[in-house]
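Reopening this one. Same input as before:
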Amino acid sequence: MLQKPFAASAEENKKVILEQLKDILQDTTSVLEIGSGTGQHAVYFARYLTAIDWQPTEIGENLAGLEMWRQEADLDNLAVAFELDVAQEDWRLARKFDAVFTANTLHIMSSSHVEKLFAGLASVLQENGIFCCYGPFNKSGQFSSESNARFDVWLKQRDSNSGIRDLDDLKQYAKKSHLRLIQDIEMPVNNRLLVWGR
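Same output, byte for byte:
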């Protein structure tokens, strides 16, 4: 029998992320979350951001666990999760969103998938939409801490295509989707919350 999944990192960072999202998303009514993982973030954010319709997504194999969190929460503004693979050329979504959010995903993806994620944003964001991504990031090829450097080694040993992404590369990907970095927020444990807008 499938047990409800749990990610310690999501539990540890959900409060500090929410404090930032309260301001960033204050004029937002709909959010598409990419790579919702266990669903802990989706449930927590939807519970406190009640004016926002929160749409979680995941790859197929993770949907069942995510759905367990959603059903248990029973929140009117938390939609049933659907499968989304950012590598697909056409995401085929039926609607556009005011904002897209993702946490701790870009360093798990390959660089080509990160580029495709940014490319896909153009088709799912409203005209004045924003993209928020949380996680560890490098600047000008430099790690922000020794712990992030060690984390990058661990990631690459696990999957050679993964690794902490550099802000310079993300800016190039974003430019193609007519997005620019509008906020770069320092977060605890050497993470950042990047906010992109048109």
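So the earlier flakiness isn't reproducible anymore. For the record, Strands lie at 30-33, 53-58, 82-83, 97-103, 125-135, 137-138, 165-166, 180-187, 191-197.
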